[in-house]
Amino acid sequence: MSPHQSPVAIGTGPVSALDVVAVARHDARVALSDDARTAIDKGRAVITELAGDDEAHYGVSTGFGALATRHIPVERRAALQLSLIRSHAAGSGTEVEREVVRAMMLLRLSTLATGRTGIRLETAQAYAELLNHGITPVVHEYGSLGCSGDLAPLSHCALALLGEGWVRDANGDRLPAADALASAGLQPVTLTEKEGLALINGTDGMLGQLILALHDLDALMAIADIAAATSVEVLLGTDAAFAADLVALRPHPGQAASAANLRALLAGSGIMASHRVPGACTRVQDAYSLRCSPQVHGAARDTFAHARTVADRELTAAIDNPVVTPDGRVESNGNFHGAPVGYVLDFAAIAVADVASIAERRTDRMLDVARNQGMPAFLAADPGVDSGHMIAQYTAAGIVSELKRLAAPSSVDSIPSSAMQEDHVSMGWSAAHKLRRAVDGLTRVLAVEILTGVRAMDLRAPLTPAPATAAIRASVRRDVPAPGPDRFLTPELDAVVDQIRSGALTATVSDVIGELH
């Protein structure tokens, strides 16, 4: 995406998932719309009226969490917001990826633009300028419980706005926030009443990670079908079980989409035609890992579709506590609780683990001389001297085992915090972190299957593959040599991973048979 394209407009309506990807991964610029500016000013006017009020208003004239009963005098209310950000920027551990931080910041800015938080326009604009100048606050892996928002991660972002803490500049260099702001010609912000809360009280971190993961999984489900097609073909399987009328007997949309992909990918296969001679083939049905691929891949697709529905609803949300209502009230609420997002993050991780699991089983079948329909053991050039893809399957198995552990839900856990005021939390941030790791694992497991399937395809010569699977082989062969004696396999696996992530593999197939579902 060109940095010169039109900025993503941040208005009172929701940003789209594609906007999140554009800003997070492709450095698209952002701009507050006129309606957002009007809404922000209107919401701020409500807070300004309360600034000198002696009544208790959470986060304006009181402390936070278990300290909400402490009345804060007028002259200390600006200091209250600064103390909030400094004390809540308490993350620890590995740095969070740049794209996650940028997604989180965009989503927080989108909520600020609704006018429901009471932020000042100049503060919201300063937040936008961090994104536009490529200044990325250093956020750490640990610190969020997914309730009262992603407090620590968002506090690290807010701290950078104040010219404190650490950031990475557009070149990726780590430096003090004050230096980065100065280099960009930006001034640190001095917070006033309510603004600290407005900057940190949202589920933006977990939502941003969900959106990025779903974007990747949408592409990976097409890759899963591509991988399955190569396995079915080289294992002399049948596409009869993928027939549209059979699939329609169980009308799940994901299953129908996956089966349609498999039919298209396998159409015209000379390898499959070779064993369709009447009376020559005595096998009436394939193993589950082949025959049930549309059912498993389809269930995953439908799971991700549900998660996308939740994400789309969250994109329309204005999450803060307290919140400025359209009729001018300032009300405490519980919308910051991450349960809706945490649940689907966990649900998605379960589906990811199962798609990887069935892919690993197909890979193992290709390597087992007792089940691979006449190919050499482990597809080795000289079995015994050579090990072929034996250890590539180990790699896939090790990843699948890890994915099963990552499928254990985070959202069923809760550790009370803030002296039992915040006595039930979502752990949605943890669920998001493990889903991102799971997506990476699935990518690698599918790469092992595709690399193995392409090797098997060559070993089936002179039988010819389907046009689509032949295109897959040609794409892989641009980076990976044809079968031969054992070679260093890691670069070859990495090459297929890169083709998956870049979209090159899917594009190659689309050029032959059109877009996959």
Automatic annotation (TrEMBL):
It catalyses: L-histidine = trans-urocanate + NH4(+). The keyword Lyase applies. Its EC number is 4.3.1.3. GO terms for molecular function: histidine ammonia-lyase activity. It comes from the Bacteria. GO terms for biological process: L-histidine catabolic process to glutamate and formamide; L-histidine catabolic process to glutamate and formate. Keywords: Histidine metabolism, Lyase. InterPro entries: Aromatic_Lyase (IPR001106), Fumarase/histidase_N (IPR024083), HutH (IPR005921), L-Aspartase-like (IPR008948), Phe/His_NH3-lyase_AS (IPR022313). Its main location: cytoplasm. Pfam families: Lyase_aromatic. One of its GO terms (cellular component) is cytoplasm. PROSITE patterns: PAL_HISTIDASE (PS00488). Pathway: Amino-acid degradation; L-histidine degradation into L-glutamate; N-formimidoyl-L-glutamate from L-histidine: step 1/3. Gene3D superfamilies: Fumarase/aspartase (Central domain), Fumarase/aspartase (N-terminal domain). It is found in: Cytoplasm. Belongs to the PAL/histidase family. This is Histidine ammonia-lyase. It comes from Phytoactinopolyspora mesophila.
